[in-house]
Structure prediction request, 678 residues.
Amino acid sequence: MNENRCIKCGSCLRACPVLNDPTGRTFPGPRTTGVDAPRFPERLSMGTAALMCTMCHACEWACPSSLPLTRSMLLTREEMSKAVPPLEGHQRMRESVRHTGRTVDTDFREWREEGAKVLYFPGCIGLGRLPDMVRDTSRLLDELGIEHDISSKALCCGSPLLKVGALEEAEMLHRHNAEVLSSYETIITSCPGCTYHLREVYGVRVSHVVELLEGKELRSEAEGVWALQVPCHLKRGVGPWAAEGMVNALEGAGTRLSRIPDEDSCCGGGGGMLSGFPGIASSIARSKATSYRRAAVSGVITACPFCALSLRRQGLTVLDISQAIRPRR
Amino acid sequence: MRRALVIGLGAAGLMAGYMLARRGWKVTALGRGTPASAMSTGCLRSLPPERGWLEELKALFLSAGLPMSEGPRTGVTNLGTRFDCRLSPSISTWEEGSGPRSIAVLGVRGHPSLRPALAASMISSWGPRARTVPLDLEVPAEASLCPLFRDDAHLDLLVEGIQATSEDAVLLPALFSLPGIGRWKELERRSGRRLLEAVTPLGVPGQRFVEVLEQGAKRTGVEMWPGRRAVSLELDGAKVTAAEVQGGTERRTMEVDTLLLATGGALVDGVLWKGQHLEDPLSTFVMVQDGAEGGGYDHVDERLLIEGERIINAFGAGDCLAYSQGRYGDGLAHAIASAWRAVRAMEGL
Ligand SMILES: Cc1cc2nc3c(=O)[nH]c(=O)nc-3n(C[C@H](O)[C@H](O)[C@H](O)COP(=O)(O)OP(=O)(O)OC[C@H]3O[C@@H](n4cnc5c(N)ncnc54)[C@H](O)[C@@H]3O)c2cc1C
Ligand code: SF4
Ligand code: SF4
Prediction:
């Protein structure tokens, strides 16, 4: 394969949602941070601008040479974190993890710790910011006949920490969680970032909620016409079949969908951008919101807490997939 | 219903998928990464003598709102060089004998999409008089101009710039993607001037070319599987029976009735260079080494071979095939013509 060969085609740059946003033009781009920086360490002097990336995998998806750009950019971040003081927002996130074990604190108290074989792992943003989604997903699992725990002991998966270069803290969480997860046969997630991390880094059996819906008889709970926000980490991280599974589940349930061309482009919320560069994150979310408003839909259905949060902050009605469908009885 | 699996979503794979679906086949087409087709200029520099596919191709572009013009055509590249071709989007070339005598070059100062000063001096060296009309906009070289010109304020700026010129034609960078191509007509109408899009590799024109074929394929019912790589094939004697496909963290096995490989050249991992040697990344088919022939999969009328045997259900098209008489810039024409030949061979099975 071409893995070591960048042909300087610029496909990654054309695909990047940050470079394509007016507020993101000081980002050096995936080629500089992912290909050049690891080889020419002096490029690390580009400073925190190198962190202006949502980790949406669009560059990697576009790269003809299959360069592992996101992985490589994470390594750059780790190197940088040794030399450059962290951004204020990233520092807050790290402190939160130190104190609570999660990137954002949670008031959620409806833990279920009954020794089930399945663990529902809502993720930090779900627990901290979208308790409605956590309850609805848990109810959906019940209705699908999936007995499950929601464990207060399962902490942040560590993926957000890798994204701010905090490798050691991420490994600490990994060790802690590995023990908690070892008493379950399967993990179910709402956040495709967690799914990807648990599958690829922890190597445990994990399914995103949409992956459970394949072949199930479903009915729609969403009235009106809905657009989709196909999460980056679902389509380009977990994989395109999972993203297609999301569409198939909704279509199968009879949800009326309006498919807009940039439904699978980044919401701006990933990669530590919400905390690190809220201005860029909201500018990207704003331009997505404009597309959705132009489509005159009732709202947006997604399958990622980060997407839901970013787009809700733009005043859109956003449902998690667990809130849009129910099993048919 | 006859079923085909197409591997590679460049010009060859998409065109073959489209033509097969139109002829009643059930087609799944998968691929990964930006194809060389999307890095090209989207212009065909040659037309082979066999042109059974030409009308089908032109009709596709016409219905996508990007009409193509045939004939000896001339345009100007984003470096200001002269570009001769046989089939191109009408907005970027002129018919022999009707070229402009003077050109105003309207580009963004410092942006590589079209460097006004460089292009103007190049143009003057081979033909029309040329003058630069630089726009001063803050866009770093790494960023594309396209998103900028989606908003009306920037379009107004462009109209103003165009109207301030008095040359026969105004050369512009490639600014509009396929969904935004209506904006080109709006520019023409509002400025009332003759506009030319710079012939540009590694930018929007190649992406548009691929998008038109993609649209056509989807519309005829081709099931599209982007973001997925075929990693190996299973064989039963001289028949391919299955393909293993990787997409993200998942791997699945696909049954195969008929296979069409349109995986492109070495640039996109379609074929592998190992030192001085070409190899098949799928470790299945016979390769011709680079030589008098262009290297790639050996074939007999687009049918691929295993160890000298003629394989019955695998075909090839485009850059992954060995082909002779190749000239620089013949790639798209060869991709589409060989796709058409492969489809005919598959139909004749
Ligand atoms: C910069 C540049 C400019 C060019 N300009 C012109 C021009 O002006 N005019 C012209 O006619 N030609 C031009 N060419 C050449 C032309 O683009 C190519 O010859 C042509 O596009 C080849 O088409 P294809 O469909 O065979 O391959 P491609 O377009 O490369 O498509 C093959 C696809 O298959 C994918 N693939 C490979 N292996 C696998 C696998 N195992 N599983 C899944 N997918 C796989 C590849 O990643 C790739 O996306 C240019 C090329 C380049 C690079
Ligand atoms: S992961 Fe997304 S945001 Fe980051 S560089 Fe790649 S395309 Fe840009
Ligand atoms: S897409 Fe890949 S090969 Fe092309 S410039 Fe970017 S990193 Fe290099």
About this structure: Chain A has a mean pLDDT of 93. Chain A has three domains: 3-81, 118-212, 218-327. The first strand of chain A starts at residue 118 and ends at 121. Chain A is about 45% helix and 10% strand.
